[in-house]
Amino acid sequence: MPRPKANSNFFKIWSSDMAYILGFIVTDGCLVEHKNGYHCLNITNKNKDILKKILTAMGSNHKISVKSRGGIPKLKYFQMQIRDRTIYADLLNLGLTPRKSKTVRMPNVSPIFFGDFVRGCFDGDGSVSIWREPRWRHTWQIKASFYGGSKLFLVALKEYLMILGSLSKGTINKCRRCHKLHYGIEDSIKLYRFIYRNGNSICLKNKKEKFEHFKRMRPDWFNRPSLTQDNMAPSSSLA
């Protein structure tokens, strides 16, 4: 049986898909150097469809395997694994490190594709919640959050979203096993507009649809002058 292949040069040229997948790896993937000498990129996620899209974008015919965590079969996850020294080396050059969950730093991301990178981070380890405020039954609320083991990464993400995405606030808290960066209504809307600017790009549909459900419930927020596209003109540089 021929060995599975992928586009070894995928991470050499910036694109919307490349930036998205880099963000997904930062939050939901890992680099592994095995004792027998081969180098792997592993990505594990509950959503099989998103892994299929990532493999397609990378020109890969690698298979997706099924895993369970904590020895509980009901906690089913899907995993893709790519063995490619060039891909591994390019990811190291971009700033990733093996076994990085607690030490990951912000990689060297092109500002042009930073929104795509953040969308990948959000799909890998982010969440969006919408609910009705108990005190006012017809008032819908929204909160977008990023999770990670590295506080330094979330601090950098918050700073870059202020520069490039026009987000103004954001709060970082310590959770039981990780840190959380979360945003209120106004910044969640700005985040939505920033990461979904490229309408046909790879994304987890269920997360995007939650934002759009909130948009249907609270069009007044999206029509506010401070939150229109014309008034959201971020810097194009991280310098």
The CATH class of the largest domain is identified as: Alpha Beta
What do the pLDDT scores average to?
88
Helix content: 25-40%
Structural class: alpha+beta
SS elements, strand count: 8
Widest sheet: strand ordering: 1-2-4-3
User: What overall geometry do the principal axes of the alpha carbons give?
Assistant: globular
The CATH architecture of the largest domain can be named as: Roll
First-to-last CA distance: 49 Å
Please tally the helical runs, counting DSSP H or I stretches of 4 or more residues.
8
- What is the third-level CATH name, the topology of the largest domain? Endonuclease I-creI
Determine Rg (CA atoms, Å). Answer: 18 Å
Residue share in β-strands: 15-25%
Largest sheet: 4 strands, antiparallel
The parts where pLDDT drops under 50 for at least 5 residues are none
CATH homologous superfamily identity of the largest domain: Homing endonucleases
Task: Indicate how many domains the architecture comprises.
Answer: 2
User: From N to C, what is the helix and strand string?
Assistant: HEEHEEHHEEHEEHHH
